[in-house]
Structure formats: C-alpha cells, structure tokens
Amino acid sequence: MQDWEKTLEFLGKNGWSYAYVKCIDLERGTDTYYVSIRRGEEQLISLRPTLAEAVNALSHLVEAGAA
User: pTM for the complete prediction?
Assistant: First the structure.
C-alpha cells in the first residue's frame, strides 16, 4: 500500500469520504489529479500533478483545521 492510500484510509477512519480522478490535458500533454474529501458540510479539493501530492495537501489542510 502506498503512502497516499494509507492517508486516504486514515481520513476515511476519521469520517472523511473521498473521490479522485485523473484529468488529462491533451493540449499540454500533462496529467492532473483532482482529489475531493468530504465530511458532513466540509469539503476540501486539491488539484496536483500527482495523486500523492493532492492527498498530502488535503491531509495537511485537515490537520491544520483540527489544530
């Protein structure tokens, strides 16, 4: 299991549901990952070049909100 999968599993155990999609920019030839996590009315979204970066950014936002 990769780190981003462990992070999503941890968030899921803490009440967050998630979805992610790989977006392909055909003009630029690049990929972007759209990751959304939600808990009740809270929703956080991240767009990053890798899935790991997107999940990591959301994880930091969750941690900052809990502090």
Answer: 0.81
